[in-house]
Amino acid sequence: MKNTPKRKQRNKHGVVLFTAVAVMLMLSILLTATVSFVSVNRTKTNDNYKSKQAYLTASSTLESFINQIQTDTAPTNDPTAKAQQKKAIDNLKKLASANSGKGTTTNVSYNGSNGKSDNIGTTKITVAQEGTSVANIVVTCETTYLGKTEKVAAHISTQSVTKPAEYTNTIELVGNGGAGYDNLNVIGDMAGINNTTGKVYRFTNNTSIYGSYLMYGSLEVSTQPLIMLKPSLVDEKQGSTVTISENLDVSNEFHINSTMARADGYNYVNIGQKLSTSNHMDVGSSGFDVDLFCCEANIGGNDYTQYGNFYVYKGAGAYNGDATFGAAGQTINGSLYVEGDLNVTKSLKVTGSVYVTGTITGKDKIVCTASNIHEGAVLSKAGRDAKPQIPVSADAYVYYPEDFFMSNDTNVTTISDQYQAFYDGSNTKTFNTFASDWTNVDYTLTELIDLTGTGAKTPVTSRYKLRITSSCTWASDLSFNDYGNGSRILVDVSDSSGDIVIRLQNGLNLGAEWSPVIVVRNRSTIIDTTTGDRKYNCYFVSDSGSAITLNGIDSVTGKSQHSGSSACNYSFKGLKVFDYDTYVRMFDSSVLNNTKGNPGLPQSGFVLNPTSVDVAGSYRPKNSSIIFLFGENTTLNATDQSFFQGSFYSPQAIVNIATSGLGGLVVTDSAGGKMTVQCCAVGVVIANSFGNANTAFYVYTKPSTTSVMQNAKGGKDDSAFGYTLDRYDHY
Fold first, then answer.
1. CB of 143 within 8 A of CB of 52?
2. Structural element, H or E, at residue 435
3. Burial letters for 215-245: b for 16+ Cβ neighbours within 10 Å, e otherwise?
4. What are the strands, taking DSSP E only, across 458-525?
5. CA angle, 727 as apex, 10 and 58 as ends, to 5°?
6. In 3D, which of 167, 255, 160, 169 has the Cα closest to residue 211?
7. How far is CA 1 from CA 171, 398, 637, 731, in A?
8. Which of helix, strand or coil describes residue 86?
9. Residue 128 has pLDDT above 80, yes or no
10. Residue 526, Cβ neighbours under 10 Å: how many?
11. Count of CA atoms in the C-beta half-sphere (13 A) of 50
């Protein structure tokens, strides 16, 4: 509660106290907008304090009214309670918006404890808009007692949206199946968030993750993968971690390193069950410790080398915290903690101390100062030694693309009208419709742009074979002679266009001879003052049909249910999708002046910065306003140097970006370090199943906070519907 009011001193003999029955009756105003009786317990009223009694009656009535709203909109994760929250707030808004915003006024009568009417004055409650928006409401209580009138008011800001979703993973798998990764390279975090037991993920052929990794299931490692822990791309002050809820099995070289010195809260590997190694494994490096936690360890085969502490703690079921060390060469540059029994069959070097709760077999094989070996020890499990928690589940997605397509709730979606227009016949436009308008063909755009980040703007000219200015269908009706061979197509988002929704016609199949280049320019002028994101966005959506039925929120999972979504299949070769502001910086004038052809490599000197901080000499894109929404049973196959700058929200779809992507892209980290990569996507990819091939990278960039993706999920402790009490006033 903000701005605590300055109240008149209460007279204890004149306070009007409300019973629970009174408050519930008062709330019926929200539900029926009719007059209700409020029961009060009245103490003696002193005629000498007429004004004060009028004030106390008004303020107590108002506080009871506000307190009950606060109770009914308390934070909850229960779907039924959230529905009641929404109902209460919606009814409050209806009262406020009545009479052109002047609101609704009701008279309140007070009944004494004997059931008879008490003459302690009359009170009017008015619920009205404050200003032009129903999101801001003022509730006024005006009481007249023996000729004296006092008025108090509460100013309320309603909020009817969930806490914005946080997207921290470059690639996130939502499905309950395992997956195999071949030469997958991720700059940013990666996760498999479906907490289904028994899943197995496999890393092969130099798969690399430059960030954090969280997965529910087991990980099998072969062919020299690397996890390089780096500062979070969401918040550079946060570090990185590796969390595997079940087993880690290393049958070939596996390296987990860090670019950061260890500190509390990051630089650790947390394995929920067993660690097994039969070949070389490195964890951490000199000066960059990485701690490792598991519930059982079997270290064998070739070398095991770690810089950091090794912890084996008891877990659920049969995991007793036992450890066996039998690798040909094994060194822990730190301390070893074993809550069960320790069995050492080959020489184990420990530079710190060894703490074992149970018994030690092979103590003579431990290369460690004798006084530092402790058998029968008690483990504190505090501070650095505390085992990190594996979350029971990740934040679940509540709404799916189908909700964005079909819902009539504006708190969920802003694009359903555009989507449904494709099916009710009110929008029959296709790309070819714009090709029939000469003002959109061979389109030239010149704009002043700050290319250097110094504030100095220079004119930049780019040319396009076709311009799209409103929602339409991308169908297979374009002329190949005119629009094949890498035609540049500009999608121009503006205040007049609003959100541009582009439906991909089911079965759209474009071979390498097409290789379209889509450039999305967003110049909507309404800006979110917190994030700087523009209000309107560009959506590429699946042709999932209009037979979709939204079946409400599941009472157990808290997720939206739907049925009737049509399956879609898409195949693209050489498709490239760019954000305009990146495109005009990435390529020089020789590329920008062409309306066709493969753009080729980025120009020398262009450096992409995916971090959360500015780095000199680099370009840091804003949150992406290009969003791909694919419904259930949709499959996308993108090959032959396809590239996507945008975010995929496809939690029930298959996304296969099996492509070497865009070559020669230089990417920087927050310290100014650079690496040149083949890049498939810049954004986030959320899918039921994900497939890749070739040595290519995926680079993190957040989706726009004004896009519908922000409504897909919320924080675990969010309040879906509620209000903020801004202040009380006494007139």
1. no
2. helix 431-435
3. bbbbbbbbbbbbbbbbbbbbeeeebbbbbbb
4. 458-468, 472-474, 488-493, 500-504, 509-510, 517-522
5. 40
6. 169
7. 40, 29, 52, 20
8. helix
9. yes
10. 10
11. 11
Token pair 């004494």 is found at: 112
640: tokens are 């032959």
Tokens of 526: 């309404």
Could you read off the pLDDT of 674-723 as tens digits, one per residue?
999 999 999 999 999 998 877 789 999 999 999 999 989 854 334 445 56
State the pLDDT confidence band at 179, using cuts at 50, 70 and 90. Answer: confident
Answer for the pair 21, 37: CB distance below 8 angstroms, yes or no: no
576 vs 583: CA distance, rounded Å: 11
- pLDDT confidence of residue 9: 34
Torsion of CA 463, 469, 472, 477, to 10 degrees: -30
d(C-alpha 296, C-alpha 276), whole Å: 9
CA distances from 173 to 242, 399, 517, 710 (A): 16, 16, 27, 18
Residues in Cβ contact with 453 at an 8 Å cutoff, skipping those fewer than 6 apart: 614, 619
pLDDT of residue 724: 66
Distance CA 719, CA 731 (A): 32
The residue among 578, 710, 702, 656 whose CA lies nearest residue 173 is 656
Contact between 659 and 639 under an 8 Å Cβ cutoff? The reply is yes
Task: Dump pLDDT digits (tens) for 438-493.
Answer: 999 999 999 999 988 888 999 999 999 999 999 999 999 999 999 999 999 999 99
Q: What is the mean pLDDT of residues 512-522?
A: 97
* pLDDT higher than 70, residue 289: yes
Structure token pair of residue 252:
């070939």
